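Annotated sample (chain length 253).
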Amino acid sequence: MSLRFLGTGTSNGVPVIGCQCEVCRSKDPRDSRLRTSALLETAHTRILIDCGPDFRQQILPLPFRKIDGLLVTHIHYDHVGGIDDVRPYCMLGDIEVYANEDTCAGLRHNFPYCFTEHLYPGVPKLNLHAVLPHSHLRIGDVEVVPITVMHGKLPILGFRIGKLAYITDMKTIADTELPYLEGVETLVVNALRWDRPHHSHQLIQDAIDFGRRIGAKRTYLTHLTHQIGLHEEAQRLLPEDVFFAYDGLQIEL
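Output written by the structure step:
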């Protein structure tokens, strides 16, 4: 099983429009970050985690293969804005979408033409599944356990998949969720920047501490701003088992 980071940036992406900082002007491809999304694949199953506004650009270079499931963390635009672009994949089968009830309601509201009784020809065919935290989902040969984390005051989903935990946009997590992360070896988690606390996102040290708290063997930081600095320099400041993820990075699980 492998996880490919399709995007590792925040809602603005990197480069930020109008910014002339050294990161936004960098020619290192690791400093260019599309909106946060990932692709989990086995030999038989392909699962997309979030589908932001950069999805078309992210998926074009990859083989055209059925998407067996779409896991959605929450309704914010940078995580769902590209859902209309899954249309070509519907030729291979409907897209099964898994999200909490509030996110399902938000998708029906934001993309009403996908959920009418009589669908307009060509719209994506999306089957919504409202999932509960701690329920066990099976998508192909992959078992997924959703957990709840808090994005400020908004409850959103993270996902436990085998010994992987994928969490983004988290500010806090209840102690009652931690047992569902026991045995996690690879943690993917959001880390906005080095300093200046944010009301709904962790900082880098928060993410490092969280990885230590659950006993992860390796931690990959995502949902990053240009304020982390140049990738090559910033990576040297992290512990040896913590890594800044970057677009296109693929890790084996």
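Annotation: The first strand starts at residue 2 and ends at 7.
Annotation: The chain is about 15% helix and 25% strand.
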